[in-house]
Amino acid sequence: MKAILALEDGRVFDCRSFTGHGEALGEAVFNTGMTGYQEALTDPSYHGQMLAMTYPLVGNYGVNSEDVESDRVWVRAFLVKECQKYPSNFRSESTLADYLSGQGILGVEDLDTRALTRHIRNAGSMRACVSTLDPDPDSCVEKARKSPSMKGLSLADEVSTSKPFIWKEGRRVFLEPDQCAEKAREWRKEDERPLVAAFDFGIKYNILRCLERAGIKPLVLPARTGPEAVMELGPDGIFLSNGPGDPEPATRAIATVKKLLGFRPIFGICLGHQILGLALGGKTYKLKFGHRGGNQPVKNLLTGRVEITSQNHGFAVDMDSLQSFGARLTHVNLNDDTVEGFSQEDARLIAVQHHPEAAPGPLDAKYMFKEFLGMMV
């Protein structure tokens, strides 16, 4: 089924749909991982984007009900060189094509993903339109240009949970908002593990698994939760999750975190890292094409060790803007020297731009969860 991918700068690529008819708009980005397509598809941080995989063959091990990072697919469209129609893996429960079409997500193949990736690397991530319904390249280019830009777009509320929940044995147990304080008191009597208020800006399931394995009990809160509600819970720590979009328009979350600075130890990952930087008074900026994949080298300046990390972000913290606020640079990206982590002793916070929970990816940075635990006990 013929399709075209049109970028806002006028570049057009021919391709074919492997999921049926459809049309999608979003920011075109690429992921350099060789595996982990199902985790990427279900990562809420990809909301508003169409994802291209640089590895040429995708879908060869199928999909299953366990390797997901949320309860749905979040990408606007999935762009690959070749989709394997007949997966071979003992854990496979479905084909990639059936998985995507079952959720109404357009998937295209026979796309020159190498050329697309090189173009994005040179020109930067940009808005795109992929369609089987509109064969006119000029029309699709115009649709891409009229779609919302990721710069200035706040998306965390769109992916966040609507109700608080706890993570219990690999599943979410939802609570009513007025039950949280009472439940928190009950848990303290029954459980010696530190209780953490975890803001859901697009939290991945493996973050919850890692918090739990580290000996932490997370109570997950909607992104819109105010500081007073958090203080009423009296948690031992606060966690700020990953998520999609531009961090600067997330003014409500930034204001909330600003009021919580110093109240309890805080750990931020990805968007949470950026929100912490803004809450301290710093600034963020959009990267040319972002970091997405499981092979990003990061230097831990506290230990001197180089860690290979999993990443998925298109914005970064400006460390120069944080110097006057007592923040200390702790991690740096060795590919482009961008900020990968900082700390602030007075506010008792740590933050990293990369993903220590991986899923998929290397586990070099997993120690961050234990470090967070050590701040609370």
Automatic annotation (TrEMBL):
Binding site for L-glutamine: 45, 243, 245, 271, 274, 312, 314-315
Signal peptide start-end: none
Annotated catalytic residues: 270, 355, 357
CDD domains, A to Z: GATase1_CPSase
Region (CPSase) location: 1-193
Annotated GO MF terms: ATP binding; carbamoyl-phosphate synthase (glutamine-hydrolyzing) activity; glutaminase activity; transferase activity
Keywords: Amino-acid biosynthesis, Arginine biosynthesis, ATP-binding, Glutamine amidotransferase, Ligase, Nucleotide-binding, Pyrimidine biosynthesis, Transferase
SUPFAM superfamilies, per database record: Carbamoyl phosphate synthetase, small subunit N-terminal domain (SSF52021), Class I glutamine amidotransferase-like (SSF52317)
Gene Ontology process terms (BP): 'de novo' pyrimidine nucleobase biosynthetic process; 'de novo' UMP biosynthetic process; glutamine metabolic process; L-arginine biosynthetic process
Subunit structure: Composed of two chains; the small (or glutamine) chain promotes the hydrolysis of glutamine to ammonia, which is used by the large (or ammonia) chain to synthesize carbamoyl phosphate. Tetramer of heterodimers (alpha,beta)4.
The protein's name: Carbamoyl phosphate synthase small chain
Gene label: carA
